[in-house]
Amino acid sequence: MPFDADITVKAERLLALARAQDMKLATAESCTGGLIGGALTAIAGSSDVVDRGFITYSNEAKQQMLGVSAESLARFGAVSEAVAKEMAYGALAHSMADAAVAVTGVAGPGGGSEEKPVGLVWFGIAVQGQAPEAFKMLFGDIGRDGIRTETVRKALDALIDALS
Predict the structure, then answer these.
(1) Whether pTM exceeds 0.90
(2) Residues 158 and 125 sit within 8 Å (Cβ to Cβ)
(3) What is the domain range of residue 68?
(4) Sheet of 99-105: strands edge to edge?
(5) Distance CA 109, CA 123 (A)
(6) Strand residues in 2-160 grouped as ranges (E)
(7) Residue 52 · residue 40 · CB < 8 Å
(8) pLDDT digit string (tens) for the chain, length 164 residues
(9) Count of structural domains, the chain
(10) What CATH number does residue 67 fall under?
């Protein structure tokens, strides 16, 4: 998937911020399937900053690769604040990164509910030495590609904010 100029500029800015602080980055992605890591690694020379990315589409992968608790998944569901925080924390714990972003959401076209509609995405941000944080976005039913693209854009913004 080619990235628009805005995403490329954000990825370049994030890499420069991380480089200036001698920080490594990791991603933990569910609904985006690796697109955040893809946006970062589309930039030549990003290997000095990007440590790794986890594509944890299934609940089992979230547990095995990131240490997300079965209790959180059962109690809150994969698309939740608790799971987004645990994913971000797990990306730090299972990498050499200093900062991580995690995303879990409902990209559609199906799979939504009244409680968790298509377009709901939870973001987790974790920085070494700080408690993980999470926030949600309701992008609306703007189509699968639209939701995934906006999620990449917002994830890059969130990491830029965390490092600024």
Answers:
(1) yes
(2) yes
(3) 5-163
(4) 50-55, 25-29, 99-105, 120-127, 133-138
(5) 20
(6) 25-29, 50-55, 99-105, 120-127, 133-138
(7) no
(8) 568 999 999 999 999 999 999 999 999 999 999 999 999 999 999 999 999 999 999 999 999 999 999 999 999 999 999 999 999 999 999 999 999 999 999 999 989 899 999 999 999 999 999 999 999 999 999 999 999 999 999 999 999 999 99
(9) 1
(10) 3.90.950.20
